[in-house]
């Protein structure tokens, strides 16, 4: 397969047709198809262009190809997709001191080179071009047949692009040397718990009574997400902009920040569309594996104002009974009032995590993972008597961020790093 070298000016970035996307998905299925057959995977990938967050130009597919060949007959030298998300970032500019601004963040995913073209620099060339393009990218409506699709933002005034990010599954080096700075990526891993609901039929029903925690379904999500975003904005506006006052040194990127410059805190908005993107992805696979969708999508403890709650999603590498690599991820964990008292918060966290562990057991997954908990949450978890393994990841799901705003990328601190950020 002869194709121009990766440095050739004849290479261009283009949006693939549906047939070209299907060709790429066919190649990526062995890598990312998990528990889905090829047919199911092709269906899932197309379906994922129609769900909240992705629809209306939210998802954009990119290929590196040659300018001279027509669509559907040109080589696909490398490919990826980007998902547009709402980003929040702290600002320190006077007058008025710190505030929280809203921008766009593009999540880069599914970076892939056909094995026949690997090791020739095509992914690197594509990523360099995509990174540049994303700085001003607002979204692209992917039409089934067109190659150069119109901008989704032609008549909408979307905020500027603040950064792009990705989760590397190939360690820290590859994307770091192409401009995406690796950030700390850790998780807590909990074992599953046999369901107490089914055991309450025993004579010892009182002892087995479930803790005061309620299940969260689809219909509770909108209110919770709105509240969460407002609390997050408030917290971000109070975080110190100077390195000296910063409390959690472990939250910095691998390169030390410049102490003479202010810190910038960034987060992805934990909004309803973001949660729905994950839950609808989950619905797709549970429908295929179990013929149904789960009704319990999270758990909430306590009353409004003092709630502790989590939303989660189940992911499957294989169909049960091969469950060892299947995981229930906490998408977002929220403590509404951090001053509610250690004992109360520890009890709330335990109740929420234990319900997640029960759901994990019931739905053919082998563990519960919570990404990037802050130090206080981890301390409260320990205090609650929960046991878990704390893991610092070095190879998989490494958050890597390219900052497009003012100031050095090393001074960017990622907050709210649970799994809802993944794409
Ligand atoms: C990773 C991938 C996209 C690279 O594509 P490519 O066109 O061969 O990439 P390039 O020729 O531009 O660059 C090759 C680089 O990829 C690195 N690389 C490839 N596979 C890697 C792996 N599994 N782990 C670490 N680095 C890897 C090579 O070491 C080389 O790095 P260097 O240039 O810094 O020495 C391709 O190997 C692929 O599609 N892999 C399967 C899917 C995948 O893992 N995608 C990434 C998900 S985060």
TrEMBL record:
Which Pfam family name is an example for this entry?
Answer: GNAT_LYC1-like
InterPro entries from the UniProt entry: Acyl_CoA_acyltransferase, GNAT_dom, GNAT_LYC1-like, LAT
Source superkingdom: Eukaryota
* Every N-acetyltransferase domain range: 107-138
Residues in LYC1 C-terminal domain copies: 202-423
Which Gene Ontology molecular function entries are recorded, alphabetically? acyltransferase activity, transferring groups other than amino-acyl groups
Q: Quote the SUPFAM superfamilies the UniProt record gives.
A: Acyl-CoA N-acyltransferases (Nat)
Please state what the protein is called.
N-acetyltransferase domain-containing protein
